[in-house]
Amino acid sequence: MSTFNGLPAHVLFVHFIVVLAPLTAVLAIVCAVWPAARERLVWLVLALSLVTAVLTPLTTEAGEWLQHRVARSPLVDTHVELGDTMIFFSGALVIATALLTLQHVRAGRGKALSTMLSAAIAVFVVLAGVGTFVQVYRIGDSGAKATWSEKPLTSVANGESDAE
């Protein structure tokens, strides 16, 4: 999908990622360190991580479509390079929430994981969550700079250029 109601789809998808990825990361961290929250939220957090993982490649694909329709610049290139890394962070978040879910299911069956393994899962979830949060910020910041820099991007399709 390249456009939606005349707007580049990337602009719309980005808003989902900017909200869902950090929200999922924070909720995953809460579930990792607070068992009562895990009991109530683990399935929601797993679902949110899966939605984020599905939306991430859609967002980057829509961004690549948009990249070919704006003037080239180092700021856009930086944003594209950072955006391409988001799939790794979304994947880590899915793995982290799957581990939390496994921990929750085993505890519900009376087969709790060892303290060492539970601690390792918590550390992984915190690292994946913080990494996701930071990377969403970095990607968003680079996109904002590319879009709203002193010399805004102009459309190549309209015959305009930023090389004036």
Automatic annotation (TrEMBL):
The chain crosses the membrane at residues 12-34, 41-59, 86-105, 117-137. The keyword Membrane applies. Residues 6-150 form the DUF2231 domain. Keywords: Membrane, Transmembrane, Transmembrane helix. The keyword rRNA processing does not apply. It comes from the Bacteria. InterPro entries: DUF2231_TM. It holds the Pfam family DUF2231. This is DUF2231 domain-containing protein. It comes from Candidatus Mycolicibacterium alkanivorans.
